[in-house]
């Protein structure tokens, strides 16, 4: 009897605690948010809506935006304001760019993975990385190296697709494109072959898996109101994120260490091709500021920028071509007209080599279809900023 009473008391206290916690959370969400004030954007739910629609979040947000171009989702701390109004976007990202920042909210969410890379910092660090990246990417050596890498991996991709086609097998196009773009970006970034398309090493496979999972788990933080609590107790998704980031850090720091040793043996530092080598040369001017951790952050941010954006855009591009066979034939015919011949098994290498900058400039229809794909399925559908000064949005 005493045991039953004890269990009943424990359950009652637990339920009461849960009820009080939820009540407090609801009060934090709804009190003081000017819900009916017409000078504020209308409220279209709370941040918990993002949990309910997480697997189709962009579809949900798009549906809401078609009815109201600027709206709010209430949160315990600060409300989230969403806008698709062109004047608002121009105001935030162009004419008043200096009045908006990544903000503490975004930085707390992404800093474990992105560190002090360009997507997680503001001010001087952002300007320094942007200036350095702009200079490095404008150099002929890096441009030629990048083009060579992408052509080589495009050839591997075509051969892989051809094998599936010949054997009449089903395959995951997005997964194949993800592997191809990661191979390319990783080679350009670190000067190292990851070989995801052809079956990489055990360490490379572990990095690839940890990298993808870390991106997904970091994104989940935007919809999970309890992620800080889970990180504190190292449980659930946060425990998985911590484990994956350690795999990434160990792999990348070893690469940086090996690259430093390699560069120390080389005399000529002017013809370095990959981004890491060029940044390592630059780090000699200020070794304390550009240490291994900072280099890790910079390069990982470039890989994140280039991998998923490219692969997702190409996935949607091929999807749209399959849905529109007339457009598909026009694209294929333009490529045949400009490049000449067919990309059969015997001539794949020659076909790829003929895809030059000059040839690409002549493919106007291909450029139009890629641009339309980006319009319909943007690679970065949501950009997050926080106001430094009070905003003046055209709601």
From TrEMBL:
TM stretches of this protein = 6-27
Give the record's keywords alphabetically: Heme, Iron, Membrane, Metal-binding, Monooxygenase, Oxidoreductase, Transmembrane, Transmembrane helix
Cofactor(s) required, per the database record: heme
UniProt GO molecular function: heme binding; iron ion binding; monooxygenase activity; oxidoreductase activity, acting on paired donors, with incorporation or reduction of molecular oxygen
Q: Gene3D superfamilies recorded for this chain?
A: Cytochrome P450
Instruction: State the source organism's domain of life.
Output: Eukaryota
Pfam families given for it? p450 (PF00067)
Classification via InterPro entries = Cyt_P450, Cyt_P450_E_grp-I, Cyt_P450_sf
| PANTHER family in alphabetical order | CYTOCHROME P450
Q: Which family does it belong to?
A: Belongs to the cytochrome P450 family.
Give the protein name, as stated in the record. Answer: Cytochrome P450, E-class, group I
UniProt source species: Trema orientale
UniProt lineage: Eukaryota, Viridiplantae, Streptophyta, Embryophyta, Tracheophyta
């Amino acid at each position: 009897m005493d045991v039953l009473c004890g269990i009943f008391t424990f359950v009652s206290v637990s339920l009461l605690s849960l009820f009080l916690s939820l009540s407090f959370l609801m009060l934090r969400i709804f009190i003081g948010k000017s819900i009916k004030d017409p000078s504020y954007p209308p409220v279209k739910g709370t941040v918990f809506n993002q949990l309910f629609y997480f697997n189709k979040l962009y579809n949900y947000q798009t549906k809401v935006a078609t009815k109201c171009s600027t709206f709010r989702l209430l949160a315990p701390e600060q409300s989230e304001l969403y806008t698709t109004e062109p004047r608002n976007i121009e105001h935030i990202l162009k004419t008043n760019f200096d009045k908006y920042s990544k903000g503490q909210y975004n930085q707390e969410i992404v800093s474990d993975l992105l560190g002090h890379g360009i997507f997680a910092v503001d001010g001087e660090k952002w300007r320094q990385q942007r200036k350095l990246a702009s200079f490095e990417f404008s150099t002929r050596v890096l441009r030629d190296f990048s083009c060579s890498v992408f052509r080589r991996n495009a050839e591997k991709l075509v051969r892989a697709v051809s094998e599936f086609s010949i054997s009449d097998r089903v395959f995951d196009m997005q997964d194949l494109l993800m592997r191809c773009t990661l191979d390319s970006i990783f080679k350009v970034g670190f000067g190292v072959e990851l070989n995801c398309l052809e079956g990489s090493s055990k360490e490379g496979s572990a990095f690839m898996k940890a990298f993808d999972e870390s991106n997904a788990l970091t994104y989940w933080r935007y919809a999970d109101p309890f992620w800080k609590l889970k990180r504190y107790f190292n449980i659930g998704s946060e425990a998985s994120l911590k484990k994956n980031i350690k795999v990434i850090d160990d792999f990348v720091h070893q690469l940086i260490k090996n690259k430093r040793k390699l560069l120390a043996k080389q005399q000529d530092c002017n013809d370095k091709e990959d981004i890491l080598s060029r940044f390592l040369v630059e780090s000699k001017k200020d070794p304390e500021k550009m240490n291994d951790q900072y280099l890790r952050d910079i390069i990982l941010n470039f890989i994140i920028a280039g991998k998923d954006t490219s692969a997702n855009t190409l996935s949607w591009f091929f999807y749209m071509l399959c849905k529109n066979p007339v457009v598909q034939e026009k694209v294929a015919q333009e490529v045949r007209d400009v490049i000449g011949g067919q990309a059969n098994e015997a001539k794949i290498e020659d076909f790829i080599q003929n895809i030059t900058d000059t040839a690409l400039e002549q493919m106007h229809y291909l450029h139009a279809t890629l641009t339309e794909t980006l319009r319909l399925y943007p690679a970065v559908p949501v950009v997050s900023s926080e106001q430094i000064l009070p905003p003046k949005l055209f709601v």
